[in-house]
Design brief:
The structure is a single chain. The protein has 194 residues and is α+β, with helices and mostly antiparallel strands. It has a single domain, classed as NADH Oxidase. The protein is built from seven helices and five strands; from the N terminus they run αβαβααβαβαβα. The protein has helices at 8-14, 30-40, 62-76, 82-93, 113-133, 149-154, 184-187, and strands at residues 23-24, 52-56, 97-103, 137-141, 162-172. Strands 1, 2, 3, 4 and 5 form a five-stranded antiparallel sheet that branches. α2 packs antiparallel against α5 and α3 runs antiparallel to α4.
């Protein structure tokens, strides 16, 4: 069983990413997607700013998404080869569910931008855990497209917004690889004072 859904602790301990290109149908239905997105918003949010947005890219808009990526890539690359074009097509059409997560900090707020960006990252992580709880696998990707102002603008991102990631959700069509996790002692310390 690739998902242990027996408890919240089990969900957190067993959540892992799958390669977006290996995620196929079925993806979440509308009720499942609503639950996933509702869970994504239940994150620390100092100032109650909701400094993030989610944009669903439906299957019938994936070709248009690919066109956008081709245009944005061509605008910043000196040449666009066959491999780049194929990679863009694959990226745009992989997995049955695609959600673009935007970090939308409120610069006028007294809440530090860093805290607002962390909240956007937490929302993406909650989304992935919620997808896992629904029995799916997710993959959070950025790539060059996340840093393209043209792509961000196309998803409603204003001057201060950034794409936090492209979140692909589906059912694995290949065995999931368990990546090595860091040894506890290499990432956890007990402060001994000054």
């Amino acid at each position: 069983m690739f998902n242990d859904l027996s408890s919240a602790a089990a969900l957190l301990a067993t959540r892992r990413s799958g390669k977006a290109r290996d995620l196929g149908a079925p993806g979440p239905d509308s009720a499942q997607l609503d639950r996933i997105l509702a869970a994504a918003t239940r994150v620390p949010d100092h100032g109650k700013l909701a400094p993030w947005r989610f944009v669903i890219v439906p299957q019938d808009r994936r070709a248009e998404f690919a066109e956008l990526l081709h245009e944005a890539y061509a605008a910043q690359a000196e040449t666009v080869g066959k491999m780049a074009r194929e990679a863009i097509e694959q990226f745009a059409h992989q997995a049955p569910c695609l959600i673009v997560a935007l970090s939308t900090p409120a610069h006028a707020s007294h809440i530090p931008i860093w805290e607002q960006e962390l909240s956007a990252g937490a929302a993406c992580q909650n989304l992935l855990v919620a997808a896992h709880a629904e029995g799916f696998v997710g993959n959070w990707l950025t790539t060059w497209a996340a840093f393209s102002p043209k792509v961000c603008h196309a998803f409603g991102g204003g001057r201060d917004a950034r794409i936090a990631g492209f979140l692909f959700i589906g059912t694995p069509q290949a065995e999931l690889d368990e990546r090595p996790r860091p040894d506890r002692d290499s990432v956890v310390a007990i402060w001994q004072g000054r």
